[in-house]
Amino acid sequence: MLEEVTVIIPALNEAASLPLVLRDLPKVGRVIVVDNNSTDGTAAVASALGATVVVEPVRGYGAACLRGLAAIRELILAGESPPRVVVFLDADYSDHPELLPELVKPIIHGNADFVLGSRLQGPREFGAMPLHSVLGTRLACFLLRCLLAAEYTDLGPFRAIEYGALCNLGMTDRNFGWTIEMQIKAARLGLRTVEIPVPYRRRIGQSKISGTLSGSVSAGLRILSTIGKYALARVPPRQTRSQ
Q: Residue 17's domain spans which residues?
């Protein structure tokens, strides 16, 4: 079933951690590493390890994810079959790539359209999520529930979504609002959504978001503004469900 899966890995200066991610990742249909204008040879490392490498020169998590989706479209136009499932996975080795089969199983079996790996429901290594990150995530999920009737426990980056459903979301955010935009739109379109607990460990290297004050503030403001934008649109999403 994993031959129907394409994995998108946004990467910014992750040459040290990327080999571990790719080592632990089960064999899938295709792995696309999006080099987000790295300066440490990330692209060369990814290519040497067999990944398809594309470059997004404008830095931003959402921009890198959008470039990965564009790469999928280019491959389809070149004659490749569309993937059934797209998985998003960070390049810093904080997630557990070996759990990908569990993440995609509900979609492959026809029981879900969108599966979110919840770090807050799973075991976390000490220091993997700073306190301000945990509290900020809980606040964002509280606001999603109160303002948009969207039930989530996390905004985790390790997630799987049916490709057709992903295309229908019309993703646009080019920065830190990418993950929450996906979750809001998934709820709004009534996607069958499942959360599964996933373990989380301390990343290799410094986080671009929680590792710096400016990154944390920028990400927090972007997430809150995204929630506010969709809440003001006054179009209530349908409920999600967890397992």
A: 2-232
Domain count, the chain: 1
Q: Where are the alpha helices (DSSP H) in 54-191?
A: 61-77, 100-108, 131-148, 163-169, 178-188
- Assess if residue 121 is contained within a domain: yes
Q: Is the pLDDT of residue 157 over 60?
A: yes
**26-35, 140-149, 211-220, 226-235: least confidently modelled range:** 211-220
Task: Give the mean pLDDT of 143-148.
Answer: 95
C-alpha–C-alpha distance, residues 117 and 102, integer Å = 10
DSSP per-residue letters across 197-220: E--B-PPSS--SSTTSHHHHHHHH
What is the spatial distance between Cα 149 and Cα 236, in angstroms, rounded to a whole number? 7
CATH number of 117's domain:
3.90.550.10
Residue 240's pLDDT is what?
A: 42
The predicted-structure confidence for 49-96, as pLDDT tens digits, reads as follows: 999 999 999 999 999 999 999 999 999 999 999 999 999 999 999 999
DSSP 8-state class, residue 26: P
Task: Evaluate whether 159 touches 117 at the Cβ level (below 8 Å).
Answer: yes
- What is the tens place of the pLDDT at every residue in 6-26? 999 999 999 999 999 999 999
First-residue to last-residue Cα distance in the chain: 22
Give yes or no for a contact between 34 and 54, defined as CB atoms under 8 angstroms apart.
Answer: yes
- Domain assignment present for 238: no
Burial readout 157-190 (b: 16 or more C-beta within 10 A, e: otherwise): bbbbbbbebbeebebebbbbbbbbbbbbbbbbee
Contact 217, 170 (CB under 8 A): no
